[in-house]
Prior knowledge:
Layout: H1 2-13, H2 15-53, E1 57-60, E2 80-81, H3 83-89, E3 94-100, E4 102-103, E5 107-110, E6 124-128, H4 131-134, E7 137-142, E8 150-154, H5 155-161, E9 168-172, E10 177-188, E11 196-200, H6 202-209, E12 215-216, E13 218-223, H7 229-240, E14 245-248, H8 249-296, H9 298-306, H10 311-350, H11 365-390, H12 407-432, H13 437-475, H14 479-491, H15 493-531, E15 536-539, H16 548-555, E16 560-574, E17 580-589, H17 593-596, E18 601-604, E19 614-618, H18 619-624, E20 632-637, E21 642-651, E22 663-665, H19 666-672, E23 681-688, H20 693-703, E24 711-714, H21 715-758, H22 760-768, H23 773-811, H24 822-839, H25 841-848, H26 852-857
Parallel strand pairs: 6-11, 8-10, 17-22, 19-21
Antiparallel strand pairs: 1-13, 1-14, 2-12, 3-13, 4-6, 5-9, 7-10, 8-11, 9-10, 15-23, 15-24, 16-17, 16-20, 16-23, 18-21, 20-21
Transmembrane segments: 269-295, 318-342, 362-384, 412-432, 444-477, 498-522, 732-757, 782-802, 822-845
InterPro entries: ABC3_permease_C, MacB_PCD, Macrolide_Exporter_MacB
Domain ABC3 transporter permease C-terminal: 274-394, 736-851
Amino acid sequence: MTVLKTSMRNFFAHKGRMALSAVAVLLSVAFVCGTLVFTDTMNTTFDKLFAATTSDVTVSAQGASDTGETTSGNGKPPVMPASVLGEVRKAAGVQSAEGTVFSTSVTVVDADKDSLSPSSGAPTIVGNWNGNDARTMKITSGAAPEGPDQVMVDADTADKHHLKLGDEIGVISAVGTHTARISGIATFQVTNPGAAIFYLDTKTAQEALVGQTGVYTNVNVTAAQGVTHEQLKKNVVARIGGDYKVQTAKETADANQQDVKSFLDVMKYAMLGFAGIAFLVGIFLIINTFSMLVAQRTREIGLMRAIGSSRRQVNRSVLAEALLLGVFGSVLGVAAGVGLAIGLMKLMGLMDMHLSTDDLTVAWTTPVVGLLLGVVVTVLAAYLPARRAGRVSPMAALRDASAPADARASRLRGVVGVVLTGAGACGLYLAATADDAKRGALWLGLGVVLTLIGFVVVGPLLAGGVVRVLGAVLLRVFGPVGRMAERNALRNPRRTGATGAALMIGLALVACLSVVGSSMVASATDQLDKTVGTDFIVQSDSGQLITPQAVQAMKAAPGLERVTEYKWTKADFSTPDGKTLKNTAITAADPTYATDLRTETVAGNLADAYRPDSMSVHEQFAEDHDIHLGSTISVAFRDGSTAKLTVRAITSSDVVIDQGAMYTSIDTLATYVPADRMPLDQLVFATAKDGQQDAAYTALKAALHDYPQYTVRDQTDYKQELKDQIGQLLNMIYGLLALAIIVAILGVVNTLALSVVERTREIGLMRAIGLSRRQLRRMIRMESVVIALFGALLGLGLGMGWGATAQKLLALEGLTVLEIPWSTIVVVFVGSAFVGLFAALVPAFRAGRMNVLNAIATE
């Protein structure tokens, strides 16, 4: 009880300083709990949606996916004859059955040809209005569609695009464009995660999406009273045979949930990873806080020891303070995490992904995980300072200052740090020189971990040299004040090293990712310049296939010399070494693609691969399966018959664009795949006539005005798009890393604040002999700046080393250009100086307000 009272007294005696450490714990715990609550809520939302929209048993055409995505490579959904519906109705245990037809490979436009599809990546679904949808949608305006000129739209899409009854919209599918006017608006009765849904009557949906009537994509079956879903499935299969996909509601919902879970898991673990980085940075803050508090209470601890307190009691006293800090910060962090999750849901709403707070899910494990993490991390971080406190001898009570540092421990720390850093450098070297990407990645991971730990351990040794250099360059211009700031930063190298290390971690990751991102852009740009021989690339940013109508519109555009189609399909390969490779990708293109993409070959001529019954393979594939020029590969196309194709070219595997692609001609593909099953184009390449690039660019865009799902890019546009995509990804990562940097800033603030308290008497004496308030504040600001720049130098140097090594590994995948983004590095370095200035504002202000006489009289 005495230990607890002492801990409580000390905790509240330093509540201002503890608050900053508590904020670090709070932020880290909030990020963890917010991530868990947000992803749990997303899972709950989708669980409810799938449960509400899934029939007892669903019958789908062969080729349909388990998740309900029914679009095939030809842009049309796989279908089954309407007779299947009649057979299903005759199965035992069926209460009702209804045929449906829908597709997600569609684009819907308004009268001005502007896309009505979601910008969040959620699907656009067009189908027939049916009883299953009526369970989850309520017609709140107008009526359901009853003819070819009518369509119904969901209320969220109508609100977003200001649609009203009578407005004309167009449904663009592989069949063509179907226009209709809005007859009704239906409102979701469950949470809509962002999909845009349009309903036609059944006959119109069949004609607009499939091009024929008398077919369905699905049959929704409802079980009779007392019949289980599993039994109903068996009865339906017994009736219609095994030629169709039959799933229970649970199977369909599980497949949909697994698809969503894959995305959510990536997001969840990525965010938890950044929370872990923030926790790591927070450890330095907590260690520094308790180390300085222990140092400032050396005399008090010595007196406690002199009057009979044991080492164990002193140790427990400090750990009890850490426990209070951990509990306080964690409890607030859990509450803040729920608020963060709600904020993320609102943010997703701005991105058209609507999540209701009614589905907010806070599992009992979330606060438990938050509390455990916060408390355990805090107590572990305080263990070393607590252990140091327990070793204070009673004789320390007679001293005015803390005991000198253990020189032997400092030397040992230096040796360990140098060894770890050296081992990490060896790991990075082995990664950079590896000839196998998988093995190199393992060396890279080991090198990153060891160099990071090594720099943290050896930081106090580096502080002396680096701070002196920074002082000579930056601080000496401020005269005596600058020299005092330098000496203050050097006074306790361990403290300076730990404070700088907290900032180092976040900036090292920023520098590493900047180097990797810039190198990826530079490598891809270099490959584009070297290999792409066409002027324009047309594709859908949402992954939509290019319809035949859009291709014909491009071919009719004036000013073009050629248009090259590019298709992709799968086949089963039987190779000369006797192996069968299932679902292997093969690319079919026009012969002009050999000119549009100047792919390097190691044997043969790529143009020959576009001859009848010919193909190319890539170098690695040839080596793995004993293939050479003239070899014959049996290719069983997924939607057609089997071909015997002769290998006419072997391409280099050391490329970025189309890496690993195997080519044949579209004419060869058409020989073995029926016209109604031919895959649509993934991309289309267009080349302008000499001197007509600008006019052709304008004409091509005009030709695709009615197809807003496709984007025309010249090489400049394509490079910029690539740069923007990587830039957006990096900005998101930088935003997540900002949490760690904020915690590091708190560490600088805390270190300075405690340092000012530690030097209260010294500050009073300096003020007494003539140091002005302004000079005092400047001294503290300069000390903060030099500590921040020390961390920035270590972090940026370390990060650039990591990034350069990672680029060497990426070179094995064809990304051969190393580019250091010096502008970003300089901005981050200069920004670190401003971070130091900002962190010193409050400590400098408090120091300047000290009463000189009271400061001098401080013990």
